[in-house]
Amino acid sequence: MSAVKSVTRQVFDDVMVPNYNPAQFIPVRGEGTRVWDQEGREYIDFAGGIAVSCLGHCHPAMVHALSEQSKKLWHLSNVLTNEPALRLAQKLVDATFADKVYYANSGAEANEAALKLARRWALDVHGEHKHQIIAFHKGFHGRTFFTVTVGGQPAYSDGFGPKPGGVHHVEFNNLESLAAVMSEQTCAVMIEPLQGEGGVVPGEEAFLKGVRDLCDKHNALLIFDEVQTGFGRTGTLYAYEQTGVTPDILTSAKALGGGFPIGAMLTTAAIADHLKPGTHGSTYGGNPLACAVAEAVMDVVNTPEVLEGVKQREQWFREALNAINEKHHVFSEVRGRGLLLGAALNDKYKGKARDFLNAAAEEGLMILIAGADVLRFTPSLIISDTDIQQGMARLEKAIERVIAAHG
Predict the structure, then answer these.
(1) Any binding-site annotation on 283?
(2) Which of 100, 108, 170, 228 has its CA 20 to 30 A from that of 197?
(3) Residue 282 annotated as binding site
(4) In 3-state terms, what secondary structure has residue 340?
(5) CATH number of the CATH domain containing 24
(6) What is the number of domains present in the chain?
(7) What are the angstrom distances between the C-alpha of 384 and each of 56, 148, 259, 286, 390?
(8) Going by C-beta distance under 8 Å and a sequence separation of 6 or more, which residues neighbour residue 362?
(9) Whole-angstrom Cα distance, residue 29 to residue 42?
(10) Would you state the pLDDT for residue 4?
(11) What is its main location (predicted)?
């Protein structure tokens, strides 16, 4: 048996599958919006674990919930239910359009469940002919083979052999594109109300309402993927509340657990009835630890103080990004909603998003990208004005680095 190595970034290259290329520094501790690496260097976190750490790092309510539940019960499986799962489900139902909740471990699993439910509903109610699933170019719904096929980014789904059939893609924010392929064979339309990975592109209100109308016309289910937009990210508990559109199925994950892995699918009682015992399942879904933490997150996030605060913080972010851009002229626009914001690079800097991300890390700032042309910001929903201003100062230095390097 080999001796244990010191834990360095090189160990990743030695022992991990190379499907990721993580940063060279390794974080070891976080508190609020600050993170420290092995060398003790501090970073301001504008990435939030890709829209996951909605209350920042080690929020006291989450730490308390996890600590208390860890002394009681860790795991049962779904042969039995548990109190944290039931309490959380009741709160989700009370706060949304939904009557029923199904738990999973991730956004991909929640979406997998939604797609399987839609297919089973269509088979039971309408027959075998009704199986078409329509989604949107540049959409993202997870990495299982079914969800990555439904996602509209071939770079993620090509190269793994024959894909699940009956899936079609149309243009986002283009109702005519959708209407042209919908028919009585359409089982469901899956959509992000605001595309995240696809470039932080909001769905236009008239478009989303039109999608709902087309689903009603063709007796198809409307699935809202709110894995990234949900749990306060846009200033309401779920983004659908701002659209005037109610979906038939909604999926949630990421911020739902604030950093503890959990996913959920929400739907109506009539649709949920088609997932009878044995039709779908998850060994870990509804885990007591995950549900206890998610309940604590919900108790903090689903309050007027936090949700209204998201809208205030959006303005602080926009003002700071616009001020930087007035000086340095690198963005063509800042788009998004709440604290899911994207700064689209202008023609001069197109394709260089990763350069900005790397430069930001050098300056002690963690950000994200959404494709090669967009800088993405998904910080804690309760980030302070001070942390925003200090983070933006670091971002400006990073931008100056990239400008100097590219002339």
Answers:
(1) yes
(2) 100
(3) yes
(4) strand
(5) 3.90.1150.10
(6) 2
(7) 11, 36, 19, 32, 10
(8) 398, 401
(9) 10
(10) 60
(11) cytoplasm
Query: Binding residue per annotation — 226?
Result: yes
Give the global pTM. 0.96
**What's the pLDDT score for residue 24?**
92
For the chain, residues with pLDDT lower than 70 are: 1-5, 407
Asked if 375 contacts 199 with a C-beta cutoff of 8 angstroms, the reply is: no
The pLDDT of residue 3: 55
37 annotated among ligand-binding-site residues: no
User: How do residues 351-382 score in pLDDT, each as one tens digit?
Assistant: 999 999 999 999 999 999 999 999 999 999 99
Residue where a domain stops, chosen among 273, 301, 329: 301
Ordered DSSP codes for 169-199: EE-TT-HHHHHTT--TTEEEEEE-SEESTTT
Q: Among 259, 284, 301, give the residue marking a domain's end.
A: 301
CB atoms within 10 A of CB 384: 14
Residue 158 inside a domain? The answer is: yes
Annotation-wise, does 107 bind a ligand? yes
**What distance, in Å, lies between the first and last C-alpha atoms of the chain?**
52
R_g over Cα of the chain: 21
C-alpha 150/C-alpha 143 separation (Å) is: 10
Catalogue the active-site residues.
140, 225, 254
Cβ atoms within 10 Å of 98's Cβ, excluding its own: 25
Is position 11 within any domain?
A: no
Consecutive H or E run containing 253: none
Question: 341 has which bridge partners?
Answer: 336, 377
Give the residue carrying structure tokens 């016309």.
217
- List strand residue ranges (DSSP E) for 64-200, in order: 100-104, 132-136, 167-170, 186-191, 194-195
